[in-house]
Amino acid sequence: MMTTHWILGPGAIGRLLAHSLSPIAATTLIGRRALPEQQILTTPEGEQRVLPLSSLTIAQLASSTPKPPAFVHITTKAMTAETALAGISGYIPPSTPLVLWQNGFLAQPRITQTWPGPVLCATTTDGAYLNGNDGVVHAGRGHTFVGDLNNQHGDLAKALAQTLTQAGLAATKVDDIRQRLWQKLAVNAAINPLVALNGVRNGELRADAYAGRVEAVVKEVAAIMLAEGIQPPNGGQGNGMSGEQAWLALVWQVVGNTANNKASMLQDVEAKRPTERGAILGPLIGSAERHGLGCTVLQDLDNQLAMLEASF
C-alpha cells in the first residue's frame, strides 16, 4: 500500500517534494489556488522533467474528502504555518504526523506544543525556486535532517528520512534537530537579510561591499548561540577555531555551495511579499534581549526589512 503524503503550501520546497515523492507515494499538493496539472522540474543538472502532480485547493478538500494522509508536510512560510494548518485540521485526524519545513525557529516550537499528534521538523540545504506557475528549479542538491524537538518520534523520523532518500532527496534522522534548526537559523540570518536588501545572489556576499557586514552579523549570532547552548558547527573549538570563527567558516561554506542561489527572502522581496524576518531574525533578537546581549546589527537588518515590506 502506498503511503499518502499531503503537501500544504505549493511553493518551491513544496513542489520539489511533490515531484520527488509522487513517483513512489500518493502525493497531493494543497494550496489556496488551483495549479496547472502538468508541472516541470528542472534538475540541478539542467534536465527538465514534466510530471502530472495532483493538487487540491482548500475548497476542493472540503468537497472531495480524500483518504486521510500518513504525513502532512507543511511547506508554507513560517509566519503562515499555523494558519495553514488550521485550514486543513478539520479534514485530518488529530493523530496525523506533521512535518514542518519552515526556516527559522518560530512555527516549530508553537506547533509542537499545540498539535496532539507527532510533529517532525525538517531542515534542508536543498535549494529550489519557482519558475512561473508550472515550474520549479532544483537549484542545488543538499541534505535534509529530520527529527522532533522532544526526541520522542525517532522511528517515525527514521521512516520518513528513508522515504525522502528513496525519493532522491538525501535525508537522515537525527536526535539533535533543535541544534540543527538553530544552526540553520544562524546561517540564514547572515545570508538572507543581506541578499534581500541588496538584491544579490548568495555568492556575491564575498565581495568587499558585503563581507564586513556578514562578519558583523556572525559576531552577534555567535554570542547568541553560545548563550543558547548551541554548539559551534563542524567541531568548533575542537579544531582550533573559536566559536565565532567556526560560525563564520560555516556561513562562507554555505555561501560557496549556494553561490548561484536566489535566497527565499530575496524572492519574497522581488515579489513584494512579506519576508520571514520574524522567523529568522525574531528568535535571535528575542534571545539576545533575554540574555542581555547586544544585537544592534541584527536589529538594524530587521528595521530595514520592515521598512522595505512597508513600502510594498
Care to count the β-strands?
A: 12
**For the record, what is the CATH homologous superfamily label of the largest domain?**
NAD(P)-binding Rossmann-like Domain
Strand portion: 15-25%
Shape descriptor: globular
Mean pLDDT: 93
Helical run tally? 11
* Global structural class: alpha/beta
CATH fold type of the largest domain: Rossmann fold
Uncertain runs are none
**What is the CATH level 1 assignment of the largest domain?**
Alpha Beta
Q: Span between N and C termini?
A: 47 Å
Number of folding domains? 2
Q: How is the largest sheet built, in terms of strand order?
A: 5-2-1-6-7-8-11-12
Major β-sheet profile: 8 strands, mixed
Helicity level, as a percent range? 40-55%
Order of helices and strands: EHEEEEHEHEHEEEEHEHHHHHH
Description:
The chain is α/β, with parallel strands linked by helices and 312 residues long. The chain contains eleven helices and twelve strands. The chain has helices at 12-21, 58-64, 81-88, 107-114, 154-166, 177-198, 208-228, 243-257, 264-270, 277-290, 296-310; strands at 4-8, 26-31, 38-42, 48-52, 54-57, 71-74, 98-100, 119-124, 127-130, 135-140, 144-147, 171-173. An eight-stranded mixed β-sheet has the order 5-2-1-6-7-8-11-12, sandwiched between helices. α3 (81-88) links the parallel β6 (71-74) and β7. α6 runs parallel beside α9 (264-270), α6 crosses α10 and α7 packs across α8 (243-257). It starts with a strand and ends with a helix.
Write the layout of secondary structure elements.
Elements lengths: L3 E5 L3 H10 L4 E6 L6 E5 L5 E5 L1 E4 H7 L6 E4 L6 H8 L9 E3 L6 H8 L4 E6 L2 E4 L4 E6 L3 E4 L6 H13 L4 E3 L3 H22 L9 H21 L14 H15 L6 H7 L6 H14 L5 H15 L2
Parallel strand pairs: 1-2, 1-6, 2-5, 3-10, 6-7, 7-8, 11-12
Antiparallel strand pairs: 3-4, 8-11, 9-10
